[in-house]
Automatic annotation (TrEMBL):
Domain of life (superkingdom): Bacteria
Lineage start: Bacteria, Pseudomonadati, Bacteroidota, Cytophagia, Cytophagales
Source organism of the structure: Reichenbachiella carrageenanivorans
Gene3D superfamilies: 3.30.70.120, NIF3 (NGG1p interacting factor 3)-like
This protein's record includes keyword Metal-binding: yes
Similarity field: Belongs to the GTP cyclohydrolase I type 2/NIF3 family.
Protein name as annotated: GTP cyclohydrolase 1 type 2 homolog
Pfam families assigned to the protein according to its UniProt record, in alphabetical order: DUF34_NIF3 (PF01784)
Length: 364
């Protein structure tokens, strides 16, 4: 098996186009055509993690956090980033990062946090816009089912918990083939009218090539009329953070003890307990202070995230309780999330969870 097969599956799950502009979720070192031996899955990639990969004979490290965020202008080993990259390259170890794109998908990091807490009715806290495209095309009515089946299989018409969503209307299409044409219906130099179905549907923009390929392969016409329109609609399945509900209200202190138990926490930085009970919970793995406004608008009783600065705690204004559980602590279980995904997709690969504690923050 080639490393590229693993990358392809991960990119299908969490498309690179979903990552934030500052991010570097990609293959960072190594060749995609390299034969795979085994995989080491980690939260971070450090020198110690690369050594662990060497010891376990793994030639692919899948890390949530990219070891390289910015362009490197030298490789002299002057910092841990350069030393990590040099060590990986010297030992033919590929490093792949799946970061904010995995944060953004509905089955990603934040969904895992919701599951650990025990939340239901989970929705994306801040859906992304500009990720959807509308397709409009015209098909002979006798062939519309065939074309629709192909488009649905390629990814057209997925809206939340519904799939195969489209709009169809009937009309008459007309055309006149010239002498060089090879029409499926009609003959050269003669105007033809055909009962046609207008098909409309939306799809994630990153599936454009797949959708158009399916349209061309299934459509009977030699020349296909279709329109693509970029949409500003929010994609409810993609975005930052999630919000859900506990099955029943819980005493605030009991909920915070639940967080400590589920995430192996030594301490939680939080705002005052201004509510005796909590039910609606917003979450964001990693640095989530930018989502506080969304948590407030959604009426979250608690916002579970990390990396809040001192003055940002005041912004809660006793409308929600901020629970800063730590960046590492909120995302360390991402290793299991990635591992479980790969286990379902590939039955014949060796998977290792990193045993290195990469948390740079210690508590005394």
């Amino acid at each position: 098996m080639k490393i590229n097969e693993i990358i392809g599956a991960l990119n299908h799950w969490a498309p690179p186009s979903y990552q934030e502009s500052y991010d570097n979720a990609r293959l960072i070192t190594g060749s995609p055509d390299q034969d795979l031996t085994s995989i080491l899955i980690s939260l971070d990639c450090t020198e110690e993690v690369v050594q662990e990969a060497i010891d376990k004979k793994a030639n692919l490290i899948i890390a949530h956090h990219p070891i390289v965020f910015k362009g490197l202008k030298s490789f002299t080993g002057k910092n841990y980033v350069e030393r990590t990259v040099i060590k990986a390259i010297k030992n033919d170890i590929a490093i792949f990062s799946i970061h904010t794109n995995l944060d953004s998908v509905h089955t990603g990091v934040n969904h895992m946090i919701c599951e650990r807490i025990g939340l239901s009715n989970c929705k994306t806290l801040a859906p992304k816009s500009g990720l959807l495209t509308q397709l409009v095309t015209f098909v002979p009515s006798t062939q519309s089912s065939t074309v629709l089946d192909a488009l649905y299989k390629a990814g057209l018409g997925q809206i939340g918990n519904y799939d195969e969503c489209s709009f169809q209307s009937q009309g008459m299409g007309s055309f006149r083939p010239n002498s060089q044409a090879n029409p499926a219906i009609g003959k050269a130099d003669t105007r033809e009218t055909v009962e046609e179905t207008r098909i409309e549907g939306i799809f994630p923009s990153h599936l454009k090539n797949k959708i158009i390929s399916a349209l061309k392969k299934s459509h009977p016409y030699e020349e296909i009329a279709y329109y693509l329109t970029a949409l500003d609609n929010e994609n409810q399945e993609v975005g930052a953070g999630m919000v859900g509900e506990l099955y029943s209200p819980m005493a605030t202190g009991d909920f915070f003890q639940l967080l400590k138990d589920k995430f192996n926490l030594q301490v939680i930085r939080h705002t005052a307990f201004h509510k005796n009970e909590v039910k609606k919970i917003a979450v964001c793995g990693g640095s989530g202070s930018f989502l506080l406004g969304h948590a407030l608008r959604m009426g979250a009783d608690v916002f579970v995230t990390a990396d809040f600065k001192y003055h940002e705690f005041f912004d809660a204004e006793q409308k929600t309780i901020i629970a800063d559980i730590g960046h590492y602590e909120s995302e360390v279980f991402t290793k299991e999330l990635i591992c479980n995904f790969l286990k379902e997709k590939f039955a014949n690969i060796a998977l290792n969870l990193s045993e290195v504690d990469t948390n740079p923050i210690k508590y005394f």
